[in-house]
Amino acid sequence: MQFPVSSKAKGKLDIGCFAASTHRVINVENCAIQKEQNNQIVAVVREWMKQYKIPAYNEDKETGIVRHIMGRVGVHTGEVMVCLVTAGDMVPHMKELVRMLKTAIPGLASVVQNINKRHTNVILGEKTKKIYGSETIHDSIGTLKFNISAQSFFQVNSEQAQKLYETALEFANLSGNETVADVYCGTGTITLFLAQRAKQVYGIEIVAPAIHDAIKNARENKIHNAEFILGDAAYKLPELIGSGIHPDVIILDPPRAGCEEKVLAAIARVKPKRVVYVSCNPATLARDLEYLTQHGYTAVKAQPVDLFSRTHHVECVALIQRHTM
Fold first, then answer.
1. Residue range of the domain that includes 71
2. 155 with 299, same domain?
3. Most CB atoms closer than 10 Å: which of 66, 82, 151, 236?
4. Is 178 assigned to a binding site?
5. How many domains does the structure of the chain reveal?
């Protein structure tokens, strides 16, 4: 879970969630639907900031230190990661923060600092440094084990993520002879699920720490038919195809903004038998389906999967097949 930090309201320290369509932080003392360790993380960091007078970042004035707090919990391992996103490299009293976290949170395995000096809405910066413990924590989905770093995408609800990935695997309908491209592969979660039933799988991802985690995940799970490519999918997928590799099945798992048109155009050129689209935004899923249906494909079926109970958010897996003559 990720929590913005603000002290705009007359110096009052607010840690919680953004009000809808604003950058106003609503203070949250406790959230009943998240892991209890994340509530503890927020409480400890709040107390540390008050006790040692650590200022929150003010995005209007570009002053202060702490921008966001991120907590990650390995559901099956119990390992906990705390990531403090700061506006600069130097943060006073970090040793005291680690001591307070170790006292309050059983299973604390990692404390890292992510530095984001840019005046931007993007939460994480490019540089992350270890403060305590390991740079990653671990969790498992099904029979696979995964390394998770602060900058890597990993589904928050890993129990439901297993159902999501099993649905994608079912829709891919692999026999063991296919070459598969997993576009926007993150830490390789779906890639490694597919690799168990495909001849060869290629994962493409733009975030370097995620690719490093994916390579490590493949090695630790003893999967040898998965290759990972670092770079922008809009360029790397056409490059992969240009090198003579023609996937039989393509998996798409883009961010909320959906797929770049260059990615969809590359798919239309290579003409895979099936495209399995894992979407977190029905609006961009519909937009991208329209493009593919105009370029020789038919949407066959879709299966929503609820990873975010009691919210309007829903994941959806869609099967798209090439027209047969």
1. 2-134
2. yes
3. 82
4. no
5. 2
Q: Does residue 50 contact residue 7 with C-beta atoms inside 8 Å? A: no
Of the three residues 119, 134, 149, the one that is the final residue of a domain is 134
What's the CA gap between 84 and 67, in Å, rounded? 8
For residues 38 and 18, is the Cβ–Cβ distance under 8 A? no
Each of the 325 residues of the chain gets a pLDDT tens digit; together they read: 889 999 865 668 999 888 888 888 888 888 887 889 999 999 999 999 999 999 999 888 889 999 999 999 998 899 999 999 999 999 999 999 999 999 999 999 999 999 999 988 888 998 999 999 999 999 998 899 998 889 887 777 778 888 999 999 999 999 999 999 999 998 899 999 999 999 999 999 998 988 998 999 999 999 999 999 999 988 999 899 889 999 999 999 999 999 999 999 989 988 999 999 999 999 999 999 999 999 999 999 999 999 887 788 899 999 999 987 5
Binning the chain into helix, strand and coil, the percentages to the nearest 5 are 30, 30, 40
To the question of whether residue 202 is assigned a binding role by annotation, the answer is no
Q: Is 280 a catalytic residue?
A: yes
Q: State whether 154 and 112 are in the same domain.
A: no
Same domain, 54 and 79: yes
Q: Is 14 annotated as a binding residue?
A: no
